[in-house]
TrEMBL record, chain A:
Subcellular location(s) per record: Cell membrane
Organism domain of life: Bacteria
Name of the protein: Trehalose transport system permease protein SugA
Phylogenetic classification of the source organism: Bacteria, Pseudomonadati, Pseudomonadota, Alphaproteobacteria, Rhodobacterales
Membrane-topology annotation of the record: Multi-pass membrane protein
InterPro entries tied to this protein: MetI-like, MetI-like_sf
Membership in a protein family: Belongs to the binding-protein-dependent transport system permease family.
Transmembrane segments: 12-37, 68-94, 106-123, 155-178, 211-232, 264-284
Keywords assigned: Cell membrane, Membrane, Transmembrane, Transmembrane helix, Transport
GO biological process: transmembrane transport
Gene encoding the protein: sugA
Domain ABC transmembrane type-1: residue ranges: 69-280
Isomerase recorded as keyword: no
A family per Pfam: BPD_transp_1
Tagged with keyword Transmembrane: yes
From TrEMBL, chain B:
Mode of membrane association: Multi-pass membrane protein
InterPro entries per UniProt: BP-dep_ABC_trans_perm, MetI-like, MetI-like_sf
Transmembrane segments: 12-33, 71-96, 108-131, 143-163, 184-209, 240-261
Native source species: Jannaschia rubra
Lineage, uppermost ranks: Bacteria, Pseudomonadati, Pseudomonadota, Alphaproteobacteria, Rhodobacterales
Family designation: Belongs to the binding-protein-dependent transport system permease family.
Protein's recorded name: L-arabinose transport system permease protein AraQ
Automatic annotation (TrEMBL), chain C:
Gene Ontology cellular component terms for the protein in this record: ATP-binding cassette (ABC) transporter complex, substrate-binding subunit-containing; maltose transport complex
GO molecular function: ABC-type maltose transporter activity; ATP binding; ATP hydrolysis activity
Organism: Jannaschia rubra
Domain of life: Bacteria
Pfam families registered for this protein in UniProt: ABC_tran (PF00005), TOBE_2 (PF08402)
Annotated protein name in UniProt: Maltose/maltodextrin import ATP-binding protein MalK
């Protein structure tokens, strides 16, 4: 509802953002698609040509792809489960009356603001290192053999580090949601004879469902493209034990200089992300109407 | 809650929450503590907690050897620059979508969000090649551009949710009072939206500061921000725990402080207004 | 001066025509009230005049000059919004001065006009406060102040009193009427409250579904409603409208009689039982289920009358005040 004049102005003011984003999306996307059907290696750039689906074949049949695919899934699902379960428990705890609530909140939220390279490096060297890490000291202190986390359980270690980074996000959002729960509803349930567990099951959890959906979907977007943590800690290894899709594409294109196969991998990553995205857009789109 | 909580229960809550809070915070605390130790104390077994000879030597060493401030400035330019540029583009866009919504406004918003879901790695190759060919590789302004575009959807969305809370009648009143479009945005909308714009800015600086895909892949020595600087500690300097800690502390301190101020907006910004 | 003329103005949102072709002229200095049920298009009509919406077709003439294409800021109109639309980040003084600042008026003149308006509106003590620190009535006055400093051709009011509580509303109603008497500027006022329309207007425009049902002075509308809709809309309590055989006796499809024109008498042509008697002190509203009538009749009796639920009563209408309507709803 407005005048033609303001609508024209509105269109003009919307244009820069739209055009820029459109360019940002379409140009590289088309180029990725283009390269994905080309032979193009940065070491031998003169030998270019169309290769049909060869790059896709190579990428998809590469044993590393299967590993990377599975690793990506484990990484995403593992982190989601850890952060949501712990996040709900923490959020409920933080919602209780206590002394110094504000400070505890600050402590809990802090890891989210630590840049990925720092958290990866600190965990790798100061905690997980089998010689000088704190965990090694702790193991020795209890008379156990120090465990070399990053070589023995590289993926699990990365899941742990990433979960530490994202737990604050989940907690904060779930806490916000819990705090918006109408306390009269809780009291009504209590009057109706619901015990604490029943109240959690029938009141709190349904109330949190929307926030949980949002956490799942948004974290998934970010978790699909975990990169720095892997680069800094394990370089995807040993072998491909901790390589995810993002890291694999990086290896193909910028380490193996195979632009063609890297692009094919990029297209695959886009398709997979889109499948997730469709669900996210639906969930958020619903909230737009509310 | 109107009901009285027993002091005992409150004490238990407090103890439990503080214990967990400290546990989660511990890696950061440990890093900060270690940054004030000598290298020998840093790897002492059993670990030394608070009672050691505090030294700030590591900080000066980090600065001298690797020129910390160069990276710091790159981070500042990249995060602040991309945020300001993003706001400049996003404020008019959010204005038009919030106050002159059309039939396609919702679609445009959703589409903008969808660009955010394009995995970075999917376009890594072309962006890398474009940057290589245009001289933007290892150039802070190149990163400013990339991060502006990456975060533009979030900025637009956050502003949009804030703007929508401003009643349209006030802007109409300004129009009736003789304000042109520019005066309407400058004198009425922007001052009213200052809190929203500020939190958008804060959150976006944080996101840009910590962005660690493009900053790692598109920079080398010259324009590297702190993310890349820290990554370079991966080996073998990583074994010098005290210096690693000092560098890490310096890299995260500014943003940690900003982050604590923005925690409320964080929820709203990162969930695109779905959770407030 | 402040004349406003609409010629064949229409407005559509997409395929939906909310204002069918409409003609209206508003004289200089007139207090015109647009009244009608919600969704009747009265606010849209006001916004068309303001220029906040484009007309789909037709022409708007303000002060003798075509204004259809003129942006709102240059139509010389001032508007008071339902939500007051005060700028929360500005002091009262700055709020009132804003249109003057936009007009690049010099500072001394701005101050003079703001002080003058503040004096008229009893806002002098509040000039340095923010809108958030004011009561509803004070905010309303600031909104009016912001409108009057511009010395506009005409004022537009969009349901300005609907956010105030009942007592305040009566007070503001009188203040606005008095302001109109003082300024003698054209005012166009939108409301859904027919009491506001009756008490304030020089001329009432009754709207339904974008159509003008009747234009006239409050008493015209009261005494000579042009159709059933206006008859039922104007007046409180609403007019008793009776269809069927009773109407046929008067050669009409529908007959209307206002509650104040029916008396409770010992004899009388209509009889019934009392449903509810509402004792207001000054008046008693008796709701009677008439025998042989589908409708419940409302009767207004001055003072107090001792009737209760279930009492049998007889009613006498004042036939001089009977309204007759044909089957097309129009007055006969």
């Amino acid at each position: 509802m407005a005048t033609a004049h303001s609508r024209t102005a509105a269109r003009l003011m919307l244009a820069p953002a739209t055009v820029l984003l459109l360019a940002w999306m379409l140009i590289p996307l088309c180029m990725t698609l283009y390269y994905s059907f080309r032979r193009y290696r940065l070491l031998t750039p003169e030998r270019q040509g169309w290769v049909g689906f060869r790059n896709y074949e190579n990428f998809l049949t590469n044993p590393a792809f299967r590993d990377a695919f599975v690793n990506t899934l484990i990484l995403v699902v593992g982190v989601l489960i850890i952060t949501i379960v712990l996040g709900i428990l923490l959020a409920i705890l933080l919602d209780q009356p206590m002394f110094g609530q504000g400070i505890v909140r600050i402590l809990v939220i802090a890891p989210f603001f630590v840049m990925p390279t720092v958290s990866a490096l600190v965990w790798k060297n100061m905690f997980l290192n089998p010689v000088n890490g704190l965990f090694a000291y702790a193991a020795k202190g209890m008379g156990l053999q120090p465990y070399d986390f990053l070589s023995q359980a590289p993926l699990a270690s990365i899941v742990g580090i990433v979960a530490w980074q994202w737990l604050p996000f989940a907690t904060l959002i779930l806490l916000t949601a819990i705090q918006s729960l109408d306390s009269e509803q809780m009291e009504a349930a209590e009057m109706d004879g619901a015990g604490p567990l029943a109240r959690f099951r029938f009141i709190t959890l349904p109330h949190l469902s929307r926030a949980i959906t949002v956490v799942v979907l948004i974290q998934t977007i970010f978790l699909l493209s975990i990169f720095a943590e892997i680069l800094v800690t394990t370089n995807g290894g040993p072998g491909t034990a901790s390589t995810n899709l993002t890291y694999l594409v990086y290896v193909e294109s910028l380490l193996n200089y195979d632009v063609g196969e890297g692009s094919a991998g990029g297209v695959v990553a886009i398709i997979l992300a889109n499948i997730v995205a469709i669900f996210l857009m639906r969930a958020i789109g619903k909230n737009l109407d509310a | 809650m109107s009901r009285a909580i027993t002091p005992r229960r409150k004490a238990v809550n407090t103890a439990l929450a503080w214990a967990l809070g400290l546990l989660i915070f511990f890696p950061i605390l440990w890093t900060v503590l270690t940054s004030f130790k000598t290298e020998a104390t840093a790897i002492a077994d059993p670990p030394v907690w608070f009672f050691f000879d505090w030294t700030t030597e590591n900080y000066s060493v980090v600065q001298e050897r690797s020129g910390y401030f160069r990276f710091f400035w790159n981070s500042v330019i990249i995060s602040v620059g991309s945020t300001l540029l993003g706001l400049l583009i996003a404020i008019p866009a959010a204005w038009s979508m919030a106050f002159v919504p059309g039939k396609r406004t919702k679609d445009i918003l959703m589409w903008m969000l969808s660009t955010k879901m394009l995995p970075a790695v999917g376009v890594l190759v072309p962006i890398y090649l474009i940057f290589r060919d245009t001289g933007l590789l290892d150039n802070v302004w190149g990163l400013v551009i990339v991060l502006t575009l990456i975060n533009l959807p979030i900025i637009v969305w956050m502003l949009y949710t804030y703007f929508r809370e401003i009643p349209g009648e006030i802007l109409e009143a300004a129009r009736m009072d003789g304000a042109g479009l520019r005066a309407e945005i400058v004198h009425v909308l922007t001052p009213m939206a200052v809190p929203g714009i500020a939190s958008t800015m804060l959150l976006n600086i944080i996101l840009a500061w910590n962005e660690a895909f493009w900053t790692l892949n598109l920079t080398a020595a010259k324009s590297a921000p702190l993310t890349a600087f820290i990554a370079s500690y991966s080996s073998p300097e990583g074994l010098f725990y005290a210096k690693l800690s000092a560098a890490s502390t310096m890299a995260i301190a500014p943003i940690l402080i900003m982050g604590w101020f923005s925690q409320k907006q964080l929820v709203r910004g990162l969930t695109f207004g779905a959770v407030k | 001066m402040g004349t406003i003329t609409l010629n064949q103005v229409t407005k559509s949102f997409g395929d939906v025509q909310v204002i069918p072709p409409l003609d209206l002229s508003i004289e200089d200095g007139e207090f015109v009230v647009f009244v009608g049920p919600s969704g009747c298009g009265k606010s849209t009509l006001l916004r068309l005049i303001a220029g906040l919406e484009d007309v789909t077709s037709g022409e708007i003439v303000i002060d003798g000059r075509p204004a259809t294409e003129v942006p709102p800021a240059r139509r010389g109109l001032a508007m008071v919004f339902q939500s007051y639309a005060l700028y929360p980040h500005m002091s009262v003084r700055k709020n009132i001065a804003f249109p003057l600042r936009m007009a690049k008026m010099d500072k001394a003149e701005q101050d003079r006009r703001v002080d003058h308006a503040a004096r008229i509106l009893n806002l002098t003590d509040y000039l340095d406060r923010r809108p958030g620190q004011l009561s509803g009535g004070q905010r309303q006055r600031v909104a009016i102040g912001r409108a009057i400093v511009r010395e506009p051709q005409a004022f537009l009011f969009d349901e300005p009193l609907s956010n105030l509580d009942a007592a305040l509303r009566v007070g503001m109603r009188m203040e606005i009427s008095e302001l109109h008497a003082q300024l003698a500027t054209t005012m166009v006022y939108v409301t859904h409250d027919q009491v506001e329309a009756m008490t304030m207007a020089d001329k009432i425009v009754v709207l339904r579904a974008g159509h003008i049902e009747q234009v006239g002075t409050p008493l015209d509308l009261y005494h000579q409603p042009r159709n059933v809709f206006v008859a039922g809309f104007i007046g409180s309590p609403t007019m008793n409208l009776i269809e069927g055989p009773e109407a046929a006796k008067h050669d009409a499809h529908t007959i209307g009689i206002r509650p104040e024109h029916v008396a409770v008498t010992d004899d009388g042509p209509w009889q019934g039982t009392v449903g509810v008697a509402e004792h207001l002190g000054s008046d008693t509203f008796v709701h009677v289920h008439g025998t042989g009538l589908a409708e419940t009749l409302t009767v207004r009796v001055p003072g107090d009358i001792a009737v209760r639920h279930g009492d049998a009563v007889r009613l006498t209408p004042d036939l001089a005040c009977l309204h007759r309507f044909g089957d097309d709803g129009l007055r006969l």
